[in-house]
Amino acid sequence: MKEKLVRGVRRALPQKSVRKLEESYRKTRVKAVSARYGYPARGLKVIAVTGTNGKTTTINYINSILKAAGYKTAMFSTALIEVAGETQLNDLNATVGTTARMQEFFRDAKKAKVDYVVLEITSHALHQHKLDGVPIEAAIMTNLTQDHLDYHKTMEDYAAAKALLFASEPRYMVLNRDDEWFDYYDKFDAGEQKMTYGEHKEAEAHIEHTKLYKKGSEADVVFDHQTKLELATHLPGKFNISNMTAAATIAYLLGVSVDKIVEGVADLEEIPGRFERVDIGDKPYEVIVDYAHTPDALQKLLETTKAITKNRVILVFGACGDRDKLKRPIMGEIAGQLANRIIVTDEESYNEDPNAIRSAIIEGVEKAKASAKMTEIADRKEAIEKALSIATKGDTILVTGMGHEQYRIVNGKRIPWNDAAVVKELTV
């Protein structure tokens, strides 16, 4: 009844008026809910990370560094939620929880007397005022690439939503000097200090001498042309070097000692659904589960995997329903260019026709005109089983799109599901 009423109001009023009503409602609601919980975010030191890709990995690095330095922390990420060392999987299928859930998190953090709160902030959460009133001590931007255009419509509007975090003038600001949208965000000022990171020669946290391995990465990072950190991480790929450098940069600004930054980076061994190696016993190939669900993330994942794989890269992937439709053929084309074998399957169709989703992906694969063989298998379990059946010595199977998630939404229904668990079930 309530949904019908809302739809009726939206149809009856001009779009501009609807937007104003929604804006007013959201601002009022976050104030009301925050008041109900006793304004728990007040007095907390909050480090917020935004960007299209790398948010989860970056805040897990930050969390690990701060703990190595002896600080008590709370973290709310897409994959994990942690308060004072107590960790649980994030099974919300959302990066930012509801307004009430976030206030509960801040309440728990304050009760635990944490020194820092580390969290991801999405463009949706910023645009919808979900975290209004939360004091931001430090803000980090990872990158901006195509995603969420079903909601924001244009990259400019997407960028503007992310910019709301920096417009609040946080005390510290960390920006990716290598990102093509760097100049857009560099126009914002930090309350106290702003610092840039990347391989760009003008980056103040300059990445040098990178080394990529099958099970990790190394890089020298030079701060302010004088302080060199030799960082080593268990997570492979240049994109993870960028993520760890973003985390190291904010830690440096917060005054964490060099040795504790190095220790904290090294302490982070894995993150659920982020280049997660699945234990498949003594099989002669590897299976990696990754959350990559944007064109940029998929491209970087495939490039990294190809560089550390002796034989073929077998990709099992799909795309989410009721989301940015424009990225589907783009991701298909990337897969066609970089994978050796492709199995297109269903992910979460929500309320959309899964056949249409797969067709858009396949259109992109075919556009690549590559030699990679492609198979379409709608059933995700059967698709994974097919990949396992054709894998040979030295191959790497990538299962992407779902990552750490514990269920899928198909035809509006919530179905228990985890890619890594399914792989283990099929390889026992």
Task: Describe it.
Helix content is 41%, strand content 22%. By secondary structure, it is of the alpha/beta class. It folds into two domains: 30-267, UDP-N-acetylmuramoyl-L-alanine:D-glutamate ligase, CATH 3.40.1190.10; 276-427, Alpha-Beta Complex (Protein-Tyrosine Phosphatase, Chain A), CATH 3.90.190. Strands 4-3-2-5-1-6-7-8-9-10-11 form an eleven-stranded mixed beta sheet, with helices on both faces. Strands 12-13-17-14-15-16 form a six-stranded mixed beta sheet, sandwiched between helices. Helix 3 (55-68) crosses helix 9 and helix 3 (55-68) packs across helix 10. The longest helix has 22 residues, at 15-36. It is globular, with a radius of gyration of 22 Å. The mean pLDDT is 93.
Keywords:
22% strand; UDP-N-acetylmuramoyl-L-alanine:D-glutamate ligase; 19 strands; Protein-Tyrosine Phosphatase, Chain A; alpha/beta; 428 residues; six-stranded mixed β-sheet; eleven-stranded mixed β-sheet
